[in-house]
Amino acid sequence: MRLFSLSLTGTAFSWFSSLAPNSIGSWEQLEQKFHEHFFCGHDELKLSHLTSVRQSHDESVNDYIRRFHDTKNRYFSVNIAEKDLADLTFNGLRSHIKEKFEGYDFFTVTQVHQRALAVESRSKESQESHRHHCSSVHALECNSNCSDDESNDMYAAEFA
Fold this sequence. Notes:
By secondary structure, the chain is mostly helical. It has two domains: about 40 residues, no CATH class; about 110 residues, Non-ribosomal Peptide Synthetase Peptidyl Carrier Protein, Chain A. The chain contains seven helices and two strands. Strands 1-2 form a two-stranded antiparallel ribbon. The protein starts with 9 loop residues before the first helix and ends with a strand.
């Protein structure tokens, strides 16, 4: 139990740190105190909530994984195997990322996270390289000696 606090972050760590010294004598007592402080049954999510978590169009992989974990942490009553969590996480990714892993089996959420980050990173690099090399603006000045022209016109074209 002494090392347990090292696994906590945020509000859970703050709560645990605020407990009186030697006030917890067993794992069962720790679990009861934890539930009393953090758990109210009406806020518990159902499995359908977890299966409906999807990465939005402009959401980064890190933000999606964080949101998935936050949702999972509100799902208390059933234990889900890590492979099943990995499948649920993978299924929520945007389709262009999922396409890269057709037929690949993930065994942990961490595997999904790392592989999806790599695809996202390569995709961003490719987009930036494409924009840098393929898009430029050229200005062409049209000089005319015709006396009817009041001024010279400037024409611009973008080559992509």
